[in-house]
Amino acid sequence: MRKLKDAGAFLPFTGGDATAGSESELQVAVCGRREEVDLPLVIAQSNYYANIMRRVRAGDASPRLVSRLERFLADNAEGVWENSWVRFPHRSLSTLAADVLAEDLRADKASPQTGLRADAARFFLEHRGEPWVRVPVSYLLKLALADALDNLPAGASSLRAIGLGLLGHFLNDNTSPETFSFHVSSLRQAGNPGHPVARETAQRFLLTQLLIAYANQRFELKKNGQCAQVYFAPHPPVRQKELNDIISDSFYRELFMSPCLSGWDQGEKKHGYMHLCHQVLSRSQLTAVAKLREAGIISNNLVVLRGVSNISLANNGTHVSLGSRILSAWQRQNIPGFGRAEEKAVGDLVIKIFEHFLPLFVGTYSAAPYRLGFADFHPEKALGFLPHELHETHLRKLWRRWRKKASLQLFGHSLTPFGPPWLDRGLSALCGLRGDWVPDFRIIDYPAALLSTERSPALDGRLDNQARLKHDLSDMGVFDAQMGLYLPCRQREFLAMGYSGFEARHYSLFERFDEDLAAAVNLQLLITALAFKLIADGTVTHRHIPDTPLVESERRQIFFAKAMGIPTVFIIRTTRNRFLRRVISLADHTRTSRRYPGYLRLPVADYQRALIRLLRLEGADLIEDFGLSFCLEELEGRIEQAGTRSAAGRLTHGILDGLGARDPLEVRARDFNLAAEQYYRESLRVAHLHEGFHWFCEDLSALERVAEQGAEPWRGLLRALLPQESQAKAILPLVQPLAEETLSAEILALLIHLVVATIGRDQELAAVHLEEPDLSHVICSPIHRAL
């Protein structure tokens, strides 16, 4: 632990104090013919489809409703059905897997006397004269792990307990599968403290790939015309968006909202909550139109709303949580002067400081490249939730700059789509209006940072401030008080989570685990530690960053501008945000705006460079302690050579390689976005798989060395799984057959067992480094005094 000037005074998140874990949101697809895959079958056999057909025959509805739905079912040459469920014979489940399913179908798992969920029947069907199971792919992963654990060789029974402990880490939540860390990592490694987080995330992804391949074989999915895939992809599939424009919001929820079988005692209640989230966000996109009109961005009554259903919950990202053993110990050991109120006060201030640094991450370490065509530039569609996230002053400026970047001009006049698709397509082709490429569209298409109200700031350091804000937003039709508040960085309070820390929710897609995810965690740790240092020495207080919607929007506009790829933002010359003024003072190319009197014109890249200068000036000791000088040099390279070194640049090049193009604007928006999905599903999935498999072989070799020294239970376990010695090298060639999905269920089960064994060893080692510090001798600290 790092000591400050005062003896016995410790600074959180330094000197090995920090811990970390991650949560991954993944995309799924089921490949197969429409006659055999669950999603098209459910649509074709649904009451919704039958009722639409009946209304069309009666002349009460347009035939286009049926033709568009039929076209969605028929026009799928690749046979890829994203977010479809799967169906398979119940007899293929092992005893343990069947027991897990039966347990998860209970109405309340905490009360053994309760019966089944009211919707239990939807998970079963009769097919070919026998009972079949139908579940989301997110839940299939849990069943596959349970099934594999039921087939352990003699002498490997100790592996069962480790594996059972992992079942709860596969969540059946939202639309996409979610997994979270199998163990908490201690960030002690000098020079690359984020490496353990990247390694664990890759390990979890590898196990996920093994489980889905095992399920395809063991549960006879491939035999019955289905092949499930799981991979990283940041935004909703193109075809799912198109389907959302065709069907009702209620039917969309029926098809895609997770039943929440795993992860909660009362799954139906959680399922109802997810329905609430979808309804609220769908309503919120309608109220955003009124704000756009108030801001003058929509100047007439011509708006395009193809449907009232919002698809943003199908976005996928990675969340990285950092915890402090010191802060947690202060809470648990009741250290005087640092209770819940103090934790909240310092936590809100840390978040406000951290938000200024968000432009260093977006597109740099993670990204979500996306193409918008000219027809997509209706402000009510393109701006997403931004009307609820930015002050109208900044919203107008961003929209003007975005239209300029996208070259939406004809004969010197700004032009936006008119509405009818045929007219917009024709105008686009005639005038060469190609639209735009966006580095991280997930940030724009998702409610990443809801704006505070004048009377209810979210980050002013007061207890229950976010509850008051949610109540205000609920009254305005923007949000619901039952939902968790959306923020790019969210505090993890000890009373609610069991530890004190912060969750970063702004990460989209990482091209590589160690190259991108680990580097991002390194920077996240450095900035968090710096925030505590600035608070401890009194350099930054809540007064330096006022809690008004305008000041909040002013710093966040740079975050959104970076996600859009907009090169310039505007800051009030006399901004009340003194911390922001400090950063801008280190920028080289800021000048007075000619268009906006009283504003400074600030290039986003110059702002990024100024942030790095601030890190070096204020955090020199932290950089030295963490050994992160190279991290900042590498970050500068990503900024200066964004096209080849940033995550957005590398992901975009990977997508374009599949198209044989050099520039995103050379191809149609839909073609680019479909190619992106194919790249994520195939090339990037295999690259992530190879990275995880490489580390798995290293872990297996390390476990063999431990076993050779006679350590139990690892010695007996490996003897049962691998009768021959030094099998780690023999395992490595299996990575290619795994990527090609040609391994047998037996080999896949062996690999699953071995990965679970390495996870168990990692959990054992992690527990050694997570002992809570004894702070009974700590009487005072700079953090206490600052509060």
What can you see in these coordinates?
The chain is of the alpha+beta class and 787 residues long. The chain has a domain at 24-270 and 678-768. The protein contains 32 helices and 20 strands. Strands 1, 7, 8, 9, 11, 16 and 17 form a seven-stranded antiparallel sheet that branches. Strands 3-2-10 form a three-stranded antiparallel sheet. The chain has a three-stranded antiparallel sheet with strand order 4-6-5. The longest helix is centred in the last third of the chain and has 40 residues, at 669-708. It starts with 17 loop residues before the first strand and ends with a helix. The model is unreliable at 1-8 (pLDDT under 50).
How are the elements arranged and paired?
Blueprint: E1 18-25, E2 27-31, H1 38-45, H2 47-57, H3 63-74, E3 80-82, E4 85-89, H4 95-104, E5 124-127, E6 130-136, H5 137-149, H6 158-166, E7 170-171, E8 178-180, E9 185-186, H7 195-218, E10 227-231, H8 238-244, H9 249-256, H10 267-294, E11 318-324, H11 325-332, H12 340-355, E12 370-372, H13 379-382, H14 392-405, E13 409-410, E14 413-414, H15 421-431, E15 436-438, H16 441-444, H17 465-475, E16 489-492, H18 494-497, E17 500-507, H19 513-536, H20 549-564, E18 568-572, H21 578-584, E19 591-592, E20 599-603, H22 604-618, H23 620-626, H24 629-640, H25 642-645, H26 647-659, H27 669-708, H28 714-721, H29 728-731, H30 735-739, H31 745-768, H32 782-786
Antiparallel strand pairs: 1-8, 1-9, 1-11, 2-3, 2-10, 4-6, 5-6, 7-8, 11-17, 12-15, 13-14, 16-17, 18-20, 19-20
